[in-house]
Amino acid sequence: MNGTTVQERPPASASWRVALPHSATAVPVARALVRTALTGAEHGTDRDTAELLTAELVANAVEHTAGDTPIELVMELLPTGCRIEVHDPDPAPPGDLTRPGPDGSPDPWQEHGRGLLLIRSLSSSCGHRRTTSGKAVWFRLPVVPAQWRPRQS
């Protein structure tokens, strides 16, 4: 076959489950874990987007749940992309995750309220589910073909 190969051989599946402190320190730790996992596995998911969306999920879990019960980061690398979940002890669903609110956009004068919009806009899919100890909020990102990826330094 002549021409550029569009599809690379998919990497093997892998997953991680990590308990994080129920504090603001969980956000940079989660970002670093996601970047390290994607880099170490040489996975084709956009690392910057994965880090950003993970930071939003972890920040929401810390900000919107009470207590000091650890939150949990679950990351699954698949040949087609990655799935990242954040588990927290509050069973209440996140507002407006899978569809926008009545006016469709966050208030431009407010400091908060854009995280779920980012997750909805930048992920290939997202959602939440109840767990035995609260809820899991998740998103998926696809593998980006090698020729579309930025060069890593």
Order of helices and strands: EHHEEHEE
User: Low-confidence parts, pLDDT < 50 over ≥5 residues?
Assistant: 1-10
Q: What integer value in Å does the Rg equal? A: 16 Å
Main beta sheet, described? 5 strands, antiparallel
Q: Whole-Å distance between the termini? A: 31 Å
Give an account of the 3D structure.
With 153 residues, the chain is of the alpha+beta class. It is built from 3 helices and 5 strands; from the N terminus they run βααββαββ. It has helices spanning 26-40, 47-64, 115-122, and strands at 14-20, 71-78, 81-88, 125-131, 134-142. A 5-stranded antiparallel β-sheet has the order 1-2-3-5-4. The longest helix has 18 residues, at 47-64. Mean pLDDT is 82; it is low at 1-10.
Looking at this protein, list some descriptive labels:
single chain; 153 residues; alpha+beta; five-stranded antiparallel β-sheet; globular
List the helices and strands and how they pair.
Elements lengths: L13 E7 L5 H15 L6 H18 L6 E8 L2 E8 L26 H8 L2 E7 L2 E9 L11
Can you summarize this structure?
This protein is of the alpha+beta class.
